[in-house]
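Comment thread on ticket #2218

A.B. wrote:
> Attaching the input chain for the structure job we discussed in standup.
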Amino acid sequence: MNMILVYLPFESRLEISKTLRSFNGHEFVLYHPDASNYSVKNMHWRAPSRDGFQSDLARCSGVICNAGFELCSETLQIGTKLLVKPMQGQPEQLSNALALKQLGWADSMLNLSSQIVEKWLDKP
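C.D. wrote:
> Ran it. Output below, let me know if you need it in another format.
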């Protein structure tokens, strides 16, 4: 399955959409605190839902999220590929992203980047 779970609650929905809109071969399920449940092409926006999120996490082929500890840990535990974007002004997230990258457990991007997402999506 080419479903990617996206949880970037502090990023602009517009910027997230701009970053992901060109990847037609993938379905993106995007949880965001400012979203209601609706779909636009390959992007399926979801309002926060613990059960829905856990269900989508269990069946996705990759996760794009901030570099906090909890979701990154869950993603690694289930063996799903991970792309992190550390939150600006959060040194612990920069440190987490660096450690994940150095260990070969995740890729990272400092800013939303279609080019980085594209390279990451092509990885097994």
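A.B. wrote:
> Thanks. Noting for the ticket: The CA atoms of residues 8 and 59 lie 19 Å apart.
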